[in-house]
Specification:
The complex is a heterodimer of chains A (1028) and B (258). Chain A has a nine-stranded mixed β-sheet with strand order 10-9-22-23-24-7-8-39-40, with helices on one face. A six-stranded mixed beta barrel of chain A has the order 34-38-35-37-36-41. A four-stranded parallel β-sheet of chain A has the order 14-13-12-20. Helix content of chain A is 23%, strand content 17%. Chain A folds into five domains: 97 residues, N-terminal domain of TfIIb, CATH 2.20.25.90; 212 residues, 3-Layer(aba) Sandwich (Rossmann fold), CATH 3.40.50; 178 residues, Dimethylsulfoxide Reductase, domain 2, CATH 3.40.228; 104 residues, no CATH class; 159 residues, Barwin-like endoglucanases (Beta Barrel). By secondary structure, chain A is α/β, with parallel strands linked by helices. Chain A is globular. In chain A, strand 16 and strand 17 form a beta hairpin. Chain B is of the alpha+beta class and 258 residues long. Chain B has a single domain, classed as Alpha-Beta Plaits, CATH 3.30.70. Helix content of chain B is 17%, strand content 18%. In chain B, the strands form five sheets. In chain B, strands 8-1-9 form a three-stranded mixed β-sheet, with helices on one face. Chain B has a two-stranded antiparallel sheet with strand order 2-3. In chain B, strand 6 and strand 7 form a beta hairpin. The radius of gyration of chain B is 19 Å and the shape is globular. Classes of the chains: A alpha/beta (1028), B alpha+beta (258). The interface between A and B is large, with 130 and 127 residues. Strand 1 of chain A pairs antiparallel with strand 2 of chain B, so a sheet runs across the interface. Chain B: GO terms for molecular function: 4 iron, 4 sulfur cluster binding; metal ion binding. Chain B: This is 4Fe-4S dicluster domain-containing protein. Chain B: It holds the Pfam family Fer4_11. Chain B: Keywords: 4Fe-4S, Iron, Iron-sulfur, Metal-binding, Signal.
């Protein structure tokens, strides 16, 4: 045995079945008395196979001939079990319309080892999953535990299947059933809906002619007083956004990103010069030689979950990869069964110390891709056969107080080009000369000098690389080590190993960056990829293959535009993407001779619209109040640390919010406060298109269609009530453009109706199927083997004849997927990121911190987490009072909406918290003790799991437990109490330990300063043993 | 861990694959070690499973897909994956060890001879099954299995266990756990067919393969690759407390205890 594997068992941790096999011993002995005349139980279906499912088809082991089971059908669609959105194959019992079991779609790269080429006949795909020739296990297509268990959502006792209107005060969990038509009427027309006074309906709010606030015209029209939020794009966002942004045209749309991974995404956007969309990358696991995972863990969680898990497993067995997982807690990604992988514990919220420590070592030991970083512009990159270049050599104006401080020194500054013209490129130094970055093949990395301008003014300039080195050298390595809790020699070892693998060394992060300095931590971690020069490279950081977009200006239909389309205008509630300095408020203050800083609340010019600020700010009326919220599957109260305590009471107040409509199949912690519930379809009942989030090198779009009949109420027209039918009905009633008759232009300019969900999604399918090289027509065998019988009449009814065959071909394969192939050209990835990679981000470096009017820094740097006014969190919440830091991690089983799934609860019924043995001893806590965890914002009772698998000083909380709704508390509908189950309340939710930032005047939870992301990593807490 | 136990573990012989592999020449019907003759099933086959622990990601997809496929009662499992935290003896470095478990379809299954009504039997293809028409639910077999792989099904009141999804193998399909194994760790197949994937992997990795509790002489036919030999016996591990707490700290027990 390899020496590194010489470990001994310390304890059994978590995960399921630990006790359950042993449970086999417990009660059988009691049954011994029942005699020998046979069993007293239910007689199973088969004497040997008991009640096991009848196979969906059979495959002859000799000939491979496949025979379908006539009582079942297999269809391909999408799993909603997490945001990976894997393509799956669903077995359905034809007689009962019940889903029997689910596994992977072999055409889909997110589910399969080597996914099948599109040309594969479906019957061959099904055969390939069988035992015939061991094919099915040589090339699997799987569903994970949750993906398997999720089908129970469909007939869950906790599901809402009827339109509901609240009875009594908001949040009282009491409802009455109403018709869909009544719901639409009341939501649109308003009135005294609850006996609490007049409520504006959507018709009144849909006002594009009147300003919200004439004093602050930039806030835009009153239509912005509708806010629409959704969990994430499960494939239907295009229709929701069509309504929200382009038909109703409110500015205020939000999704879960700001309490999911926004700090990471923005840090990534900063190095990729893409703060508009915050592009990000994933390691090419198959070709990388060293991967440093920090705050993300493939196979524990992460996206794409199965694909990363499978690739890391294969790399472990093949021995091709060395990887390190840096995380406050040990997780499933670190395997004792193989060598070359290792866990390094870190204190929560201190990742910037690790990043800057590693950067320091790399810069001081020339551990970077020198030749690549020296490429100053695209001509040099092209000559070197690189997809892009970095701005490492570009010069940044760094004269204190200069109005152009933070800008690149450009050709126009030296009168060598017209400002803003194509020739106005950043300047670099080559051979000691100041030259344009596109004029030389290499430039100096480290520059710090003065430059005389044409008008005689002298400026201090520093190269991006110098600014980075200066930032990295602000602390010594010992300080970094002390702050993050990783020994100095370990940091050096990580840096050295990272450097030793050259451009096949990669780092990747995600949710671990949701800390108080998370943006710069993520920026720093992603900087390691820039220094390694691994973007666009085999074994490096890959942007992935993208998607076949069906909802844009497609070859068959234009789903992005329609007659009468509007564009939203005005300032987001979250005050993002809008410089405070352009606001009327700022200008009034300046005009009145007042210091405009600090702003009343953060204005984050770099951040996308964030739900974390939208809701609390709207309820506090700053920058402006809102009148209505429509939420679709969104649950910010469960998901955002500290939100419930901050806004629950305000949310109940109809004066602060007039109307709250929730579209969902379940009553969660947020939509329990709704006025109306629109019962939504759940997975397998929906239409839509999804893609790979990242982590897949080929182009792909996954399609879903209702493979089972939606279980919920239908409208008078016979359509299932759902998100789609709700927005269509509202738009039609309000007469909004883009819905109803004459809503969808085709390529010839003819207009087609949008009355039903399929009017939209099937036309998107035609766009996907027929873009580029159109897909061929499906044959009868494909249609039979892919269970398309229920879909074909809808395709034929909706689409043009020439579209039927290709669209059926698409659905028969569950989407459209670029064939598996080598995605490389030499050492380069074929899907490349072409923008300049940023060592220094000019947009960040010239943005203003609205706390003090100072410039934000354009390179990553180390800081301990801070609160909204800039004071260190640890000054306000001291270590003496709050000695531990809580962190959350994603579960490989549970998610934030899966607690109702009993097959997951039976494996992992709740989430004991991870505590290090040293801390346990320090606070007098033993393994299995009941403890109270208190934070400045909350208090919960938990069970301590004491061991070595967590950083001393940190306390780990698995996410997905501690629910108060989704069935955990009874709701009353039409006077009848609905089913509830106390087991759903088990465990704790870290977000109940979040808190109100005490340094803010407009109420807000603790948010990361640059991004507005909810801080959940590194919450100050204390623990005490309690006797129950 | 106490030092005595540690030294005992140190003395444990790594099981050589040869001792555990199917004696292919064995006469399946002859009856060995008081085993009744095998019956039913395909006499030309011998099914076994190989689990490459290096590829197990502990995701429990096998656990759930098996549970659905075989309609096990909630809280009862035909297969599951235990997760352990292990610590390096010298450096203190900590890692995770995943151990998927299921019926070993032993060559010498101790559960079979103890059945008073011959309901539990071994098929000629090696799969150990229970005839629910005969089973009286006495649980002798449950107690005889050193691997805790059996339970009494609360609905049928008969012994229940993994059948390698015999109903799927007979249909030319893969067991649910194999089909859904995300990391690609589970390999099933006919070990009498030298061309099968499992046969090829057994010959490739023969010396590295281990089985659970070899000292029981059950000759398990589930082989582990990447196994830490100290796990072949029941690990001496501090269990996770499974008592669920309500929000006030009151113990709720386990929802699915029967």
């Amino acid at each position: 045995m390899d020496k590194s594997r010489r470990r001994f068992m310390k304890g059994a941790v978590a995960a399921g079945g630990v006790a359950t096999f042993a449970a086999g011993y417990s009660d059988p002995l009691l049954k011994m008395g029942k005699g020998v005349t046979g069993s007293a139980g239910e007689k199973p279906n088969h004497r040997i196979h008991d009640n096991s499912l009848v196979p969906e088809y059979t495959v002859d082991p000799q000939s491979g001939e496949l025979t379908l089971n006539p009582d079942q059908r297999v269809a391909f669609t999408v799993c909603y079990g997490c945001t990976t959105k894997c393509g799956v194959r669903v077995r359905v019992d034809k007689a009962t319309d019940q889903v029997l079991r689910v596994s992977g779609n072999p055409y889909n790269p997110l589910s399969s080892d080597e996914h099948l080429p599109m040309r594969t006949p479906v019957v061959d795909a099904l055969r390939g999953l069988s035992a015939y020739g061991d094919q099915g296990q040589q090339n699997r297509s799987t569903a994970c535990a949750r993906g398997n268990a999720m089908m129970a959502q469909i007939d869950s006792p906790f599901r809402v299947t009827h339109c509901l209107k609240r009875v009594g005060g908001r949040g009282g969990r009491e409802w009455q059933k109403i018709s869909f038509e009544q719901l639409i009427e009341e939501v649109c027309e308003g009135g005294d809906l609850f006996g609490e006074g007049e409520v504006d309906g959507l018709r009144a709010i849909h006002d594009h002619d009147t300003l919200i606030d004439p004093e602050n015209p930039e806030y835009g029209p009153r239509a912005n007083q509708l806010m629409v939020m959704e969990a994430t794009d499960y494939g239907r966002s295009a229709l929701l956004k069509r309504f929200t942004m382009n038909a109703f045209a409110t500015r205020n749309y939000g999704h879960h990103g700001s309490y999911c991974g926004l700090a990471y995404r923005m840090g990534s956007g900063a190095v990729m010069d893409d703060l508009a969309k915050n592009a990000h990358t994933k390691p090419d696991i198959q070709n990388a030689r060293f991967i440093l995972y920090v705050g993300t863990a493939p196979s524990q969680a992460g996206n794409p979950f199965k694909r990363q898990g499978r690739l890391i497993a294969q790399a472990r067995a093949a021995g091709t990869l060395d990887y390190v997982v840096v995380d406050p807690g040990l997780n499933a990604s670190v395997s004792h069964a193989a060598d070359h992988n290792r866990w390094v514990p870190i204190l929560p919220g201190t990742d910037s110390a690790l990043a800057m420590g590693m950067i320091q070592w790399l810069l001081n030991n020339e551990g970077y891709a020198k030749g690549f970083l020296e490429l100053p512009g695209q001509p040099a990159a092209d000559a070197a056969n690189e997809a892009t270049h970095t701005n490492a050599t570009h010069l940044v104006i760094d004269t204190e107080g200069h109005p152009r401080r933070g800008r690149f020194l450009r050709a126009s500054d030296l009168n060598q080009a017209e400002a803003g013209s194509e020739a106005d490129v950043p300047m670099v130094v080559a051979d000691g000369e100041l030259v344009a970055s596109d004029s030389v093949m290499a430039a100096e990395l480290f520059v710090n000098r003065e430059v005389a301008l044409a008008d005689g003014e002298t400026l201090r300039v520093r190269s991006s690389m110098t600014l980075l080195r200066d930032a990295a050298n602000e602390q010594d390595l010992a300080t970094y080590a002390e702050h993050c809790g990783i020994p100095e020699d370990t940091i050096v070892d990580l840096a050295r190993r990272f450097a030793s693998h050259g451009r096949r060394a990669v780092t990747n992060s995600h949710g671990g960056m949701m800390s108080g300095h998370g943006f710069y931590a993520a920026f720093g971690m992603q900087m390691l990829n820039v220094l390694a020069g691994n973007h666009n490279r085999k074994g490096g950081s890959a942007v992935g293959g993208g998607q076949f977009n069906g909802v844009g200006e497609g070859p068959r239909y234009d789903l992005a535009n329609f007659p009468g389309k509007r564009g939203p205008q005005g300032v987001f509630l979250s005050r993002s993407r809008f410089p405070y300095e352009k606001s009327s408020e700022y200008q009034r203050k300046v005009a009145a001779g007042k210091n405009p800083y600090p702003a009343r609340a953060p204005w984050r010019s770099l951040a996308p619209p964030t739900l974390t600020e939208h809701l609390p700010s709207a309820l506090d009326g700053y920058p402006y109040p809102i009148k209505a919220v429509i939420g679709c599957m969104a649950n910010p109260i469960y998901g955002q640390a500290g939100l419930e305590a901050l806004i629950a009471d305000k949310l109940k107040d109809p004066k602060r919010l007039g109307l709250f409509v929730a579209i969902d199949g379940f009553l969660n912690e947020t939509n329990r406060y709704a006025d109306y519930i629109v019962p939504d379809s759940v997975m397998y009942e929906v239409w839509g298109f999804t893609s790979a989030w990242k982590g897949n090198l080929g182009k792909m779009t996954t399609a879903c269609w209702p493979v089972v009949e939606p279980r919920q109420q239908k409208s008078e027209e016979g359509e299932p009530v759902s998100m789609d039918s709700f927005f269509i009905a509202v738009a039609k009633r309000l007469g909004l453009a883009g819905f109803g008759d004459e809503a969808i232009p085709d390529a010839e300019g003819n207009l087609h109706p949008l009355h039903l969900a399929e009017d939209f999604y099937l036309r998107a399918a035609a766009n996907v199927a027929m873009q580029g090289e159109p897909l061929p027509a499906a044959d009868e065998s494909d249609i039979v083997h892919a269970g398309l019988a229920p879909l074909m009449p809808r395709i034929e009814r909706t689409l043009k004849p020439e579209e039927h065959g290709p669209v059926a071909y698409l659905y028969a394969r569950g989407g459209r997927f670029e064939d598996f192939k080598d995605h490389f050209k030499g050492e380069n990835l074929t899907s490349a990121w072409k923008r300049t990679l940023c060592v220094y981000n000019e947009q960040v470096g010239t943005s203003i911190d609205t706390r003090n009017g100072e410039l934000n820094r354009g390179v990553p740097f180390y800081s301990m987490p801070k609160l909204a006014d800039g004071s260190a969190m640890r000054e306000v919440f001291t270590e003496e009072e709050w000695p531990l830091l809580a962190f959350s991690f994603k579960s490989n089983l549970m998610n934030s909406y899966a607690i109702g799934l009993e097959r997951l609860r039976m494996i992992k019924p709740y989430n004991p918290v991870m505590m290090h043995r040293q801390d346990a001893e320090r606070f007098g806590i033993s393994h299995g003790d009941t403890i109270r965890i208190e934070s400045p914002g909350g208090s919960v009772v938990a069970l301590a799991l004491v061991g070595e698998g967590v950083m001393p000083g940190a306390l780990g909380i698995e996410h997905g437990y501690g629910h108060r709704d989704l069935g955990a508390t009874p709701h009353v509908i039409d006077g009848e109490s609905q089913p509830d189950l106390e087991w759903l309340r088990a465990g704790i939710n870290i977000n109940n330990l979040g808190f109100k930032d005490p340094t803010r005047s407009v109420a807000g939870t603790w948010l990361e300063p640059i991004s507005g992301a909810a801080v959940r990593q590194g919450l100050p807490i204390r623990v005490t043993h309690i006797d129950v | 861990m106490d030092p005595i136990r540690r030294s005992l573990l140190g003395q444990l012989a790594r099981l050589s694959a040869g001792a555990a592999l199917v004696p292919l020449s064995s006469v399946a019907n002859a009856g060995i070690n008081q085993q009744p003759p095998r019956r039913e099933g395909d006499p030309t086959k011998r099914y076994g499973m190989l689990i490459d622990l290096r590829q197990c990601i502990g995701c429990q997809a096998c656990t759930v897909s098996c549970h659905i496929e075989n309609a096990a009662p909630l809280g009862s499992f035909r297969t599951t994956v235990a997760q352990y935290e292990v610590e390096h003896q010298e450096t203190g470095e900590v890692a995770t060890f995943m151990l998927p478990r299921l019926c070993n379809h032993c060559e010498n299954p101790p559960c079979v001879p103890v059945c008073p009504v011959e309901a539990t039997f071994q098929r000629q293809d090696g799969i150990v099954v229970v005839d629910s028409d005969r089973c009286v639910g006495c649980a002798y077999c449950v107690n005889a299995c050193p691997y805790d792989a059996r339970f009494i099904n609360e609905r049928t009141q008969t012994a229940d266990k993994c059948t390698f999804c015999a109903h799927r193998l007979e249909a030319g399909l893969l067991p649910a756990c194999v089909e859904s194994c995300v990391g690609g760790a589970r390999i099933i197949g006919d070990m009498r067919d030298p061309a099968s994937q499992i046969s090829r992997m057994i010959s490739e990795h023969g010396d590295e393969l281990m089985v659970l509790q070899p000292e029981k002489h059950t000759m398990p036919q589930v082989f582990y690759l990447g196994m830490d030999e100290r796990f072949v016996t029941r690990p001496h591990a501090e269990p996770v407390a499974l008592e669920v707490l309500d929000p006030h700290g009151k113990e709720m027990g386990y929802e699915f205890h029967h």
